[in-house]
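Summary of Year 1 activities. Much of the first year was spent building the evaluation harness for sequence design. The harness presents a backbone, in tokenized form, and records the residue chosen at every position. We chose the following record to illustrate the format because it has been used consistently in internal testing since the harness was completed.
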């Protein structure tokens, strides 16, 4: 393994501090031509642990040669990643692996123990939610990836950032704090409470959507998220995009990772691969009343298990493979499964199953609900980067879909309405129904929001500081 130089360690120290910066929206270019929707190689390579920024830039620039950089194409997000990775590579030009990152983290801790800390005295300068004075003064406090609600205490909510660690609210989302600045990776893409013992919490590390932080498998807490330890023996180098904790067994967890589907039966002490491939899996959903039935998507394929994740069946009856899919289920109709399908950029189709994911019916394939326009008449989108889906817990066939903008359907995806207002930040990453209030909550590039009375979005990001600095 290549040695980590002092230069790399120093730069890692710089990036570990939770600096804040304004997250910019998508650039407003004129749309003069459609995007070629073939899946570009760079979008796959970015997810690999030993990614080469130089190789990705070469492929990325070749992909865009002769094409207009239209609004909502995801061009800016890749440029941000390339900038972020500058200085985070080893001496062979590859992004630091999780093992190298941990080694560098240990070296930093040794410096601290020897009294050579460079931390000094730091104060948050913003932006924070306090900087937003009116609903028209939209700024955003930083990108967020994941949300989870305590199963019995409505005041406790956990939220994960792609490069800002784990955040905790004790008052129902009114305020947030963090104590994870010393994690060796600050990427959190999945959070799962154990319903049988809510003091047990698992998080999936790494950045599922843009590879801003390395994946280091799963971490586990025994005190509701106050302290953490690694529980990742066989998956230590993987991004964990989603995970499902068995509702009656806190030791049984299924994880969708960047290298296949894995399961633990002993609380994370050991993991074993249950998928028959090593594809990049990103989304998991569990049948609302039968925890043995689990759904998972990876690289545009829908998979189904009937034995709590031990064996998986590829389902293609009525559902067409694509590049990326996300899943939603609802206690209002436990047999229903909703799937939002996308290419690297654009909307492909919306599917519904009424038999627990055995067969699907296509509900629509237009308009382009993942693009930048409210009406859906624009080309493109950023599905490789922002894609989210949730089903209403009370109203059957009401679903919420997030791409660049937020959409809602009241007829299982047959028709769509735009529910993005000027107050809500663009680029949606996670949608979760609050089990205590039945309101839908959202994690996006601007922070945390809730859909108040199904009429307007309310920013719930007070105290969160997760802005990412881009040049």
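For this record, the design step produced the sequence shown next.
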């Amino acid at each position: 393994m290549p040695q980590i130089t002092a230069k790399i360690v120093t730069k890692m120290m710089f990036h570990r501090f939770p600096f804040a910066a304004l997250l910019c929206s998508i650039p407003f270019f004129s749309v003069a031509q459609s995007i070629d929707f073939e899946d570009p190689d760079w979008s796959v390579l970015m997810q690999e642990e030993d990614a080469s920024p130089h190789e990705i830039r070469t492929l990325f620039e070749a992909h865009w040669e002769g094409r207009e950089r239209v609004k909502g194409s995801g061009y800016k997000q890749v440029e941000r990643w390339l900038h972020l990775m500058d200085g985070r590579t080893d001496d062979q030009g590859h992004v630091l692996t999780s093992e190298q990152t941990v080694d560098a983290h240990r070296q930093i801790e040794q410096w601290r123990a020897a009294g050579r800390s460079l931390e000094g005295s730091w104060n948050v300068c913003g932006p924070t939610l306090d900087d937003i004075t009116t609903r028209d003064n939209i700024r955003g406090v930083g990108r967020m990836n994941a949300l989870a609600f305590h199963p019995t205490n409505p005041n406790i909510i956990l939220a994960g950032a792609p490069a800002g660690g784990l955040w905790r609210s004790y008052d129902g989302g009114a305020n947030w704090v963090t104590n994870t600045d010393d994690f060796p990776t600050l990427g959190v893409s999945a959070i799962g409470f154990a319903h049988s013992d809510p003091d047990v919490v698992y998080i999936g590390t790494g950045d599922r959507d843009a590879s801003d932080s390395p994946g280091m498998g799963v971490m586990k807490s025994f005190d509701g998220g106050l302290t953490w330890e690694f529980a990742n023996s066989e998956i230590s180098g993987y991004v964990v995009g989603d995970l499902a904790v068995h509702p009656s067994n806190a030791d049984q967890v299924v994880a969708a990772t960047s290298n296949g589907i894995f399961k633990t039966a002993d609380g994370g002490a050991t993991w074993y691969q249950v998928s028959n491939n090593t594809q990049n899996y990103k989304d998991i959903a569990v049948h609302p009343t039968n925890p043995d039935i689990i759904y998972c998507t990876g690289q545009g394929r829908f998979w189904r298990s009937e034995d709590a994740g031990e064996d998986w069946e590829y389902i293609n009856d009525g559902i067409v493979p694509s590049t990326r899919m996300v899943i939603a289920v609802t206690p209002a109709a436990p047999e229903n499964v909703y799937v939002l399908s996308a290419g690297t950029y654009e909307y492909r189709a919306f599917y519904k199953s009424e038999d627990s994911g055995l067969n699907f019916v296509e509900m629509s394939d237009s308009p382009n609900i993942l693009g930048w326009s409210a009406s859906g008449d624009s080309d493109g989108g950023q599905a490789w980067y922002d894609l989210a889906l949730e089903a209403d817990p009370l109203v059957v066939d009401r679903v919420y879909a997030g791409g660049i903008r937020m959409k809602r359907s009241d007829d299982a995806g047959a028709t769509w309405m735009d529910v993005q207002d000027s107050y809500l930040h663009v680029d949606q990453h996670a949608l979760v129904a609050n089990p205590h209030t039945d309101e839908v909550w959202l994690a996006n590039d601007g922070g945390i929001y809730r859909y108040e009375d199904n009429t307007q979005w309310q920013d719930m990001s007070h105290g969160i500081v997760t802005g990412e600095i881009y040049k």
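Residues 1-39 have pLDDT under 50 and may be disordered. Quantitative recovery figures across the full test set are reported in Table 2.
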